[in-house]
Amino acid sequence: MSEEKERPPRPRPGITRDTAHFWKGLEEGKLLIQKCSACGALRHPPEPMCHHCQSLEWTTIESKGRGTVYSHVTMHHPPIPAFEYPNLIALIELDEGVRLVSNVIGVAKEKVHIGMVVQAEFVATDPELTLHQFRPVEEV
Ligand SMILES: [Zn+2]
After folding, report:
1. 24-58, pLDDT tens digit by residue?
2. Whole-prediction pTM value?
3. How far is the CA of 14 from the centre of ligand 1 (A)?
4. Cα(6) to centroid(ligand 1), Å
5. Three-class SS string for the chain?
6. According to the CATH classification, is domain 64-140 in 2.40.50.840?
């Protein structure tokens, strides 16, 4: 029993026809945000229809990955072997204006705060999954 148990892979994201471009972008190191082709509104998570003008036509922009912590929580329970703890989960508001849920990495949990400036990184959590995670820009 001295051998350290290998961490199981993270649960797979629910990839659909409407969200596949987002996950494919992460594989390529790009944070792709959906943009309505008709009115230009950005939206995330990806959806088939624009909330502003009901257009079904869309394209994507590549986010610069810079944003701020809008809200955050530290998940303690239940412990899931696939995740590292403390599991710092944040709602990130990108400079482009949309918000997305992610992990914050490279910072102690008591240092995470609302308004903290963060930058996206692309982390291969296992050979088949690359995820966006956010690291503080300033030393905290
Ligand atoms: Zn629109």
Report:
1. 999 999 999 999 999 999 999 999 999 999 999 99
2. 0.90
3. 25
4. 46
5. CCCCCCCCCCCCCCCCCCCHHHHHHHHCCCCEEEEECCCCCEECCCCCCCCCCCCCCEEEEECCCEEEEEEEEEECCCCCCCCCCCEEEEEEEECCCCEEEEEECCCCHHHCCCCCEEEEEEEEEECCEEEEEEEECCCC
6. yes
